[in-house]
Amino acid sequence: MTGKRTDYLSWDEYFMAVALLSGLRSKDPSTQVGACVANPQNKIVGVGYNGFPWGCSDDDLPWEREGAFLDTKYPYVCHAELNAVLNAITTDLRDCRIYVALFPCNECTKVIIQSGIREIIYLSDKYKHTESVQASKLMLKKSNTVYRQFIPERSSILLNFLTE
Ligand SMILES: [Zn+2]
């Protein structure tokens, strides 16, 4: 008797991989972040990546990180978490969890909490020393929203378009 495959993706690996794959859609030259929202039944209900709002061309607005505020990307860009929540196929995200490569900033944390998402699974917390992330963690604690780091058991997943 043949048993089932043993090297299949875990749910955490699957949703984090979808988040990372979504990030590849970003046009941002410096930071590509994706996000994936999964519901308690392990169905994907929203995905997103960082980009400009609808109708705002990726070629017309600046992607700069430095300079006058209006000449940088910051006033315009929608973060992956915001897009994942707003792109959700259901508006009820209560008890869902969100997978993100990077620990959410304070603005996205507000969106996550208000949407009803109850858990954040992140890969990197490299901005943990910033006040933005400190504010995120304060709000998450007060709202009893849990978060945990995703510790991968494999370093990469290979996708191959050329099958035989
Ligand atoms: Zn954000």
Descriptors:
single chain; 164 residues; alpha/beta; five-stranded mixed sheet; 4 helices; globular; binds zinc ion
- Rounded to an integer in angstroms, the radius of gyration calculated over CA atoms is 17 Å
Bound molecules: zinc ion
Shape: globular
Uncertain segments? none
Derived structural class: alpha/beta
**H/E series, N to C?**
HEEHEHEHE
Number of strands: 5
Could you estimate the helical fraction of the residues in percent? 25-40%
In DSSP terms (H or I, runs of 4 or more residues), the helix count works out at 4
Note the beta-strand portion: 15-25%
Strand order of the largest sheet: 2-1-3-4-5
Give the N-terminus to C-terminus distance in angstroms.
26 Å
Query: What is the overall pLDDT average?
Result: 95
Largest sheet: 5 strands, mixed
